Amino acid sequence: MKKLRQIVESIKNLPDRDSDQLQSLLWQLICYSPKIPVRFHQQKLLDEAEFIPLKVKDQYFSKSDLNINCFKWGNGPVKILLTHGWGSKGVDFSDIISLLRTNKDFEIWSFDAPGNGSSEGEISNLFLYAESIKQLFKHLGIPHIMIGHSLGGMANSLALQQVKEYPKLLISIAPLVNLKDNFIASMNAVNTSEEAQRKFFDDFEKLFDQKTEHFVLNRIYDFSDQLKHLLIYDSNDLISPASYIEDFLRENPQIKASSYQETTHSKILTDSRVLTEVDLFIQQGL
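== AB hydrolase-1 domain-containing protein ==
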């Protein structure tokens, strides 16, 4: 978090608010993922995991192969893949992993996306998340169950859209729906002018060869009839607003949805009600 605070302070104290230096700092603001230390109980869980390193090509920033760290618990026939959110890491699913480990039929996988947790990379983006997922598909096949939180929920959908193969069950927990609006909120928080934001988005679209309007879950998710999908969200979430999620759900009525209150965007992964619902959905779905 220290580096992110430095980026924010540098932007706020920049004399020329429309300079090239500002644009460089905005790229860091949007694409730098803050690192949160592993907690004691999480480290214990990692110590019990099998470590598997994989490589992902970063064609956008470093122009190199990045090592991503993957972790596996169990050797059962049912494979489960967990995709973490922005500024997070695979072991932040610790409560869900501990729950799933009680079933000896499960083989549970998590990973640290590029630029997150213990994996290589200075900055990251949605596409590097999706590329990491596809590398895991190559390594273990399409898992039976995929669980994604926040940006990880959007990344799961993007990877599945690209490969056109699907798990039996998909669980999205507080997924991001409109990435452009998240970017705008971050830039507004540091008083970035509309002109500077337009310049950033122009450069962003050139780099990724896509309109930022396409970074919306409604556009990415086009396979609702291909699998059983549970979406869980917090009706008061400030990071992934319920209004966006509910618009998405209206377009995809086949999705089973549950809303909770006062879990917060991150603590929703540890809420006992959420854990119970995830467990029940998996039991019934399999």
